[in-house]
Design brief:
Elements (H helix, E strand, L loop, with lengths): L2 H31 L9 E6 L2 E8 L2 H6 L11 E11 L2 E2 L8 E6 L5 E7 L7 E2 L4 E8 L2 H5 L11 H4 L13
Parallel strand pairs: 2-3
Antiparallel strand pairs: 1-2, 3-8, 4-7, 5-6, 5-8
Length: 174
């Protein structure tokens, strides 16, 4: 084969490979940018009502501030547990949070003190109503579906209950 044709064929082949790579990136980029399974956060498995959830652990001020913000979805039976060093009145908002959520507030003894629903992007604080040490966010409706109720006792996984809850201050909108 003449060298000028061989060079042209190589260029066409390289362009085809690059085009296919761009298609792959375009198709999978939304999945790659979504946190959750690949977020790098420690996860724990926890029984809530009649359902076992996989929860990401937010045990530092920065992780609690970020929470589930900027995610397009949350897989079923997944969520986040926010860990604080001690019981206190808590309040969460939905700044930059696109997913409707249930929030389950739990005291230091593992008792559910309140369950609330939160709307996407709502900047109003959703209070715990009673002192809580943990807040668990799951997809809206998942708490009722799991059958969890105020007064129920949950077993907080050791990895979450002994987490280092650093920078433990609670601010409006955490």
């Amino acid at each position: 084969m003449p060298s000028h044709l061989r060079g042209s064929l190589i260029i066409k082949l390289l362009l085809s490979v690059m085009a296919m790579a761009l298609v792959v990136v375009a198709v999978f980029m939304p999945t790659l940018s979504c946190q959750g399974k690949g977020s790098g956060l420690q996860t724990v498995r926890m029984q809530i009502g009649n359902t076992t959830f996989t929860l990401e652990v937010a045990d530092t001020y920065a992780l609690r501030q970020q929470g589930l913000m900027n995610r397009d979805s949350l897989p079923a039976k997944r969520g986040m547990i926010f860990v604080f060093a001690r019981e206190q009145q808590l309040g969460f908002w939905m700044k930059n949070t696109r997913i409707a959520l249930d929030i389950i507030y739990v005291n230091g003894g593992g008792q559910v003190v309140s369950i609330r629903q939160m709307r996407p992007y709502d900047l109003r604080s959703v209070p715990s109503g009673s002192p809580a040490q943990f807040a668990i966010e799951v997809n809206q409706g998942a708490a009722a579906e799991a059958g969890v109720k105020v007064g129920d006792k949950l077993i907080i996984p050791k990895q979450a209950s002994t987490a280092q809850a650093e920078g433990d201050r609670m601010t409006e909108g955490e």
